[in-house]
Design goal:
220 residues
Length: 220
């Protein structure tokens, strides 16, 4: 049994597949978590659909996924996130100015845009994971598959654990945070069309945009 398990699973491939899944899909989860405060749990369906579409094609088609034009995917995704990030910044400012007054004007269109954004984020982040997975799958299909599955389970568990904490944040602050997050990913994806920055750059980008959105939403 032990020998059979070792033949089926390659620890290196398994850990690599799990690691890239955790890295990329956790970023999609973070965006979905933030967007859910504005548009509800339905956001996670769109993020999940984007992820499932890419991963299903990856394991079904193997190396064919690497031929897709990631440059154009990132440009389109970055443009979408930029647009809705700016819209949410304006929405955050209105929420601060009205401070507690309810308004449903434009909410339906905004939610529709958020759902599109959620799908795009799931699509792009899983696409980036797929670029690594296409190199791992030919070496050991089962190890790659099990690594991805465990990575997804960890991301889902972490998202569920953090969901209750997000509900405690005020709407204006959450909108500002979502806007900063989308603008950060937009800038990051645009930069990836020119060079390959480290994912760690997302942290200072988020802090910069969070400060800018906060100043904009609270200006007199």
């Amino acid at each position: 049994m032990h020998i059979l398990l070792r033949e089926v699973l390659d620890p290196g491939i398994f850990i690599a597949a799990m690691g890239i899944t955790l890295l990329e899909i956790s970023e999609a989860s973070a965006v979905g978590l933030a967007l859910s405060a504005e548009a509800g749990n339905k956001v996670f369906l769109y993020v999940s659909f984007g992820v499932i579409v890419v991963l299903a094609v990856t394991f079904a088609a193997g190396h064919e996924i690497a031929r897709l034009p990631i440059l154009y995917v990132r440009l389109v995704g970055g443009a979408l996130l930029l647009y809705f990030g700016l819209r949410l910044a304006r929405s955050a400012r209105r929420a601060v100015l009205r401070s507690g007054k309810s308004s449903t004007e434009g909410k339906e269109n905004l939610e529709r845009g958020i759902f599109h954004t959620a799908f795009t984020v799931g699509l792009i982040e899983s696409f980036e994971a797929a670029i690594v997975l296409v190199a791992l799958i030919p070496m050991n299909f089962d190890s790659s598959l099990y690594g991805v599955m465990l990575g997804l389970l960890i991301v889902v568990a972490g998202t569920i654990a953090l969901k209750s904490q997000v509900r405690k944040i005020k709407q204006a602050n959450m909108k500002a945070a979502i806007s900063a997050l989308l603008l950060s990913f937009s800038t990051f994806w645009f930069s990836e069309t020119v060079f390959r920055p480290s994912d760690l750059w997302l942290i200072p980008l988020f802090l910069i945009f969070a400060a800018l959105v906060y100043l904009y939403s609270h200006r007199q």
